């Protein structure tokens, strides 16, 4: 189902608008030349050229690893602490032991 044609001049202009870019005869050779230049670049040269980005990425990875390790260690500590409390209270009063068992 086609919508009814609009009398809006802007809509008509957009409907009739066509882009006809001129073909650049050197486009494809220029692309291949850039690919060849990049393929000759060594890994060390790439890192030197993008040192700031690699530094930020490395710092972010270290922060994420530290945060994750800290979270796991805290969870393990809480679990161990809870087990020690239950064990201690159970040794003090064996009648309470049944209530404290997880």
Compact summary:
With 102 residues, this protein is mainly alpha-helical. The chain has five helices and no strands.
Strand count, sense and barrel status of the largest sheet are: none
**What's the overall average pLDDT, rounded?**
84
Encode the helix/strand succession as letters.
HHHHH
Radius of gyration: 34 Å
Strand content range? under 5%
Q: Flag low-confidence runs.
A: none
Q: Could you tell me the number of beta strands?
A: 0
Please describe the topology of this protein:
Layout lengths: L8 H8 L10 H14 L2 H7 L1 H42 L4 H4 L2
Give structural attributes:
mainly alpha, 74% helix, 102 residues, elongated
Task: Describe it.
The protein is an all-alpha fold and 102 residues long. It has a domain at 74-102. Helices cover 74% and strands 0% of the residues. The chain contains five helices and no strands. The protein has helices at residues 9-16, 27-40, 43-49, 51-92, 97-100. The longest helix has 42 residues, at 51-92. The radius of gyration is 34 Å and the shape is elongated.
